[in-house]
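Box S1 | Example of a co-folding query
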Amino acid sequence: MSVKFVAYNNGVLLPQSKPKRLYKCECRIRLMKMLSDADVIVVLSCVSGALLPFARNTLGKVIASHFGSPATSHINPQNLRRLLNYQNTVKYRRNLLVAMCQQEYLPDHDGRRVRVIERDLTEPDRIVGELLQPGGYLKLIELGLEDCVEDIDAQRVFGYALFKDGRNTRLSYPLEKFHSDVAGRSFHNGRFIQRMREKASSLPNVQLEQGTVSSLLEDNGTIKGVMFKSKSGEIKKAYAPLTIVCDGCFSNLRGSLCNPQVDVPSCFVGLILENCQLPYENHGHVVLADPSPILFYRISSTEIRCLVDVPGQKVPSVSNGDLSKYLKTVVAPQIPPELQDSFIATVDKGNIRTMPNRSMPAAPLPTPGALLMGDAFNMRHPLTGGGMTVALSDIVVLRNLLMPLHDLHDSYTLCQYLESFYTLRKPVASTINTLAGALYKVFSASPDEARQEMREACFDYLSLGGVFSNGPVSLLSGLNPRPLSLVVHFFAVAVYGVGRLLLPFPSPKRIWIGARLISGASGIIFPIIKAEGVRQMFFPATVPAYYRTPPTE
Ligand SMILES: Cc1cc2nc3c(=O)[nH]c(=O)nc-3n(C[C@H](O)[C@H](O)[C@H](O)COP(=O)(O)OP(=O)(O)OC[C@H]3O[C@@H](n4cnc5c(N)ncnc54)[C@H](O)[C@@H]3O)c2cc1C
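Box S1 (continued) | Returned holo structure for flavin-adenine dinucleotide
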């Protein structure tokens, strides 16, 4: 066995002159080259200063998990060599790479073979997944995938602009504490997906192929693999110790892996406006319209995505012209004047797409041999553009759980261990899910006076700025996924609304509306929290699965 140590960036932090992105990219290319001529490569980034404890800790954990040794306090080549010699009875897998560049290491190169079966490998053309929150971008960085938003004409997103009854307010993401590269990104979903597919298929241990999975192969309650139809029409079977099922919102494979309670509160009607300007460039635009919100955001340097929410499970008919009439007479008058001409011209051109907005709380049925992920597992209203952030955050959680494991063949033990996934994902997932569901209800128009007050109060609360906008926006962006903070802000909005009703002179009618506002707010948020799971959401540390340790091999 050949072991190669490479000390990287010795004692020096990232050169200021070089963009972090570029630097990381260079690191990765060099690492990939090294991979070819050694069995084990350990790349050390001898970072200094504040990062040192973090570096030692993280690298220590990775090494400890791969080589079965306790975490080390001092990471240097001698210690590692000693560690490896000491543990030389452990079976090493070829091409194991333990890498860490700055805070990053590359566990996707851990030698595990991955077979990806995707129904259609051509570039998707969809109206979904076009705005990635900054929290999602941070997850891309953690996964070493941030370059997937490069060279696709992706646009940076720095926050939101809210519009209501002729008034507007700008809400910026609180990005001050982050690297200048960190922001939201909006793009053509298909271009982003293709970049990720290219990246996956460039890895020697990943096999990406086109095929439609028809069923899961089960044996004695354990999932052994999948049956699929290949591109050439052949029926094939693929076996693996762990099958990750992520076939999206229309999943036909999730049936035995979860208890799906799908709700379709509304549909999005999607249009692309060309060659016009947004009132606030590099911001998502949310119009609090009647009956429900309308979104605008730039997806390329020349195109603006418009998503019009239509409550209910059906949209007016496209074929008989009802939809374009609805868009021109009901929607157009409510959108910012700068966009109206382009909006009407786009409707006249007729390239209108629709998509149901689904929400489904995570209700897993842990099954040996399989794990459900992405929209197949958990969905929320797309108003806040949180789906990809939740999916990427789940991937990071799963990646970290799988990293210490050498062998996935003991399905029952693995399944028990992976139950911790459902709790560990909760802070991010439940915050984004709850906020999406609650905001959709609050932002939609209602004949109920109390709900109108709540909507108005929400707009005004966010317009206050400072902590009143930073708090909710950092929750929405995935930058600060804290469920408790979400509940505090939600009820602060309600209390703010009641205060406005009662001051300066409360009348019996206003007191009554205030009471209904509080009860309406509770009626919105508590059912969502109940579906998310109160204990997992607020007290994850009390859930026994939270403490599951990797199975010993
Ligand atoms: C209208 C709308 C707008 C949205 N906008 C945003 C947004 O702006 N930002 C955001 O973060 N999220 C948004 N979302 C949510 C986001 O799109 C999803 O959360 C995200 O795409 C989930 O990723 P996924 O991989 O689970 O599913 P998908 O992206 O749907 O991927 C599933 C994949 O599985 C493949 N597949 C399906 N069945 C099979 C099969 N039988 N065999 C083989 N392959 C199969 C499909 O071809 C597809 O490639 C939006 C959702 C909707 C409905």
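The radius of gyration is 25 Å. Residues 508-532 form the longest helix (25 residues).
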